[in-house]
Automatic annotation (TrEMBL):
Protein name: MFS transporter
SUPFAM superfamilies: MFS general substrate transporter
Keyword terms: Cell membrane, Membrane, Transmembrane, Transmembrane helix, Transport
Membrane topology: Multi-pass membrane protein
UniProt key word Cell membrane: yes
Domain Major facilitator superfamily (MFS) profile: 7-380
Membrane-crossing residue ranges in chain numbering: 45-66, 73-90, 96-122, 134-153, 159-179, 200-221, 241-260, 267-285, 291-313, 325-345, 351-372
Highest taxon in the source lineage: Bacteria
Organism per entry: Halobacillus naozhouensis
Stretches of the chain forming a coiled coil according to its record: none
C-alpha cells in the first residue's frame, strides 16, 4: 500500500482524536469553568475521565484489533470522537459534559492500537518506523489547530467544539474510504497475536516508565493554561498562543524515530524524560514571563510527542510479535498515570497552589529519567525500525 495513502488519513485521525477531542480541553477549560461554575477539583475530576476512558478503550481496541484487524476500531474511534465533541459543544451541565468527555477520551484509546497494526500490515517494513512516528505526531497538528481555533473563536468554546465535531466527521469519512477492508489485499493476511505480557523480556521497565511519565505530564496538559492565566497579565491570543507553541514544537517530536536509530533508544528516552520534567519546573518559576512560558510550552510539546514516539518504538520492540499490544501497553499505562496525575493535580492545586504542584510534578518527571530501556546493539535497533 502506498505510504501516503495510509499515513495521511492516519495523521488527521490522530489529530482530531488526540489534538481536538482530548488535549484541547485544557485550553478551553478556563472558559468552561466560568460557564458551568466548576471548581478546580471538579474540573480535575472531569479531566481524569479522558484518561479513564482511554484506559478502558485501549484495552478493548488492543483485544479486538489483535483478533479482527484494524479497520473496525479505526472507524469506531472516529465515531466516538465525533459524538464526544458534539456532546461537549451542546452540554447544558457537568453531567452531559462528563459523558462527552468519556466518549472523546475513549476515541484516543480506540485509535492507537489499530493504526500500529495497520502499519505493520500494509506498510513496507523499512518504512514502518517512520510511518508510526509521523502518525503519532498528528497529535501536534491537532493541538496547533485547537490553539488557532481558540484564538479565532474566543470565548465561544461551544461553537469551537461544534466546529471540531464537523472536522472530525470529515476525517472519519476519509478514513472510512482509505482503510482497506480485511482481506481486501489478497497477498496480505492479518495474523492473530499473543495478548499475554507474562514473561515478555523488558516489559516491566516499560510499564513503570510509562506510568511515571503519565503522572508527570497530567498537570501540564490539564492546568498549565489556567496556571499562566492566573499568574500573568496575558491577552486571550497570548494564552491561546501558548497552546499553539505546544503543538508547533510537538511536530519536531515526529523525528523521534530518527534519533532512536542514530543515538539509541536509551539515550532518546533519557533526553525526552529530562526535557519534559524541565518544562513543568520552568513554568513553576516563571509563569508571569511570556518568553519563559512559551519556552516551557515548546519544550513540553516537543518532548511529549517525542517521548510517546519513543514509548511506541520501545513497546513494539518489547512485544515484537504483536504491534497492537506493543502500542497498547505503554499507552495504556501512560493514561493510567494521567488519571492518577490529573486527580492529584486538581487536589494539590486546591491545597498548595499552582507553583508547588508544578514543581512536584516536575520532580516526578525527574524520577522517570531513572527508569528506561537498557542500551542495545545498534544493529538490533536498526532491524526493528
Amino acid at each position: 500500500m502506498k505510504f501516503s495513502k495510509l499515513v495521511l488519513p492516519g495523521v488527521t485521525m490522530v489529530a482530531v482524536t488526540y489534538g481536538l477531542a482530548r488535549f484541547s480541553f485544557g485550553l478551553l477549560l478556563p472558559a468552561m469553568n466560568g460557564s458551568l461554575e466548576m471548581s478546580e477539583f471538579v474540573s480535575g475530576m472531569i479531566s481524569s475521565l479522558f484518561y479513564l476512558a482511554y484506559c478502558f478503550t485501549i484495552i478493548l481496541s488492543t483485544v479486538i484489533t489483535t483478533k479482527e484487524g484494524p479497520r473496525r476500531m479505526i472507524i469506531s474511534a472516529g465515531l466516538s470522537a465525533f459524538a464526544g465533541l458534539l456532546l461537549i459543544g451542546i452540554t447544558p451541565n457537568v453531567w452531559v459534559l462528563a459523558l462527552g468527555v468519556l466518549l472523546a477520551g475513549g476515541s484516543t484509546g480506540l485509535i492507537s492500537p489499530p493504526y500500529g497494526a495497520a502499519i505493520s500490515l500494509w506498510i513496507k517494513e523499512d518504512k514502518q518506523g517512520k510511518a508510526n512516528t509521523w502518525i503519532n505526531s498528528g497529535t501536534s497538528f491537532g493541538i496547533v489547530l485547537s490553539g488557532v481555533g481558540a484564538i479565532l473563536l474566543t470565548p465561544n468554546w461551544r461553537l469551537t467544539y461544534l466546529i471540531y465535531a464537523i472536522l472530525t466527521l470529515l476525517v472519519l469519512i476519509w478514513n472510512f474510504r482509505a482503510i482497506p477492508k480485511d482481506g481486501a489485499i489478497s497477498s496480505l493476511m492479518f495474523k492473530k497475536g499473543n495478548l499475554s505480557i507474562r514473561g515478555v523480556k523488558g516489559s516491566i521497565p516499560l510499564i513503570f516508565a510509562s506510568l511515571t511519565l503519565g503522572v508527570s505530564t497530567a498537570a501540564f496538559w490539564t492546568f498549565s493554561r489556567s496556571f499562566i492565566e492566573a499568574a500573568g497579565d496575558y491577552s486571550d491570543w497570548q494564552l491561546s498562543g501558548f497552546w499553539v507553541i505546544i503543538g508547533l514544537f510537538g511536530v519536531l517530536g515526529g523525528f523521534s524515530g530518527s534519533l532512536v536509530e542514530k543515538g539509541g533508544l536509551s539515550l532518546a528516552y533519557k533526553l525526552g524524560s529530562l526535557s519534559i520534567a524541565s518544562s513543568s519546573i520552568i513554568l513553576s518559576f516563571t509563569p508571569g514571563n511570556l518568553v519563559m512560558t512559551y519556552l516551557s510550552a515548546g519544550l513540553f510539546g516537543c518532548s511529549y510527542i517525542f517521548l510517546t514516539g519513543v514509548l511506541l518504538v520501545w513497546g513494539i520492540r518489547v512485544f515484537i510479535t504483536n504491534a497492537s499490544l506493543g502500542i497498547g501497553v505503554p499507552f495504556l499505562l501512560l493514561a493510567v498515570g494521567q488519571v492518577i496525575g490529573s486527580l492529584l493535580a486538581g487536589l494539590f492545586i486546591g491545597i498548595w497552589g499552582y507553583v508547588t504542584s508544578f514543581i512536584l510534578f516536575g520532580l516526578v518527571g525527574m524520577v522517570a529519567t531513572l527508569i528506561g530501556p537498557k542500551k542495545r546493539n545498534k544493529k538490533v535497533i536498526k532491524h526493528t525500525q
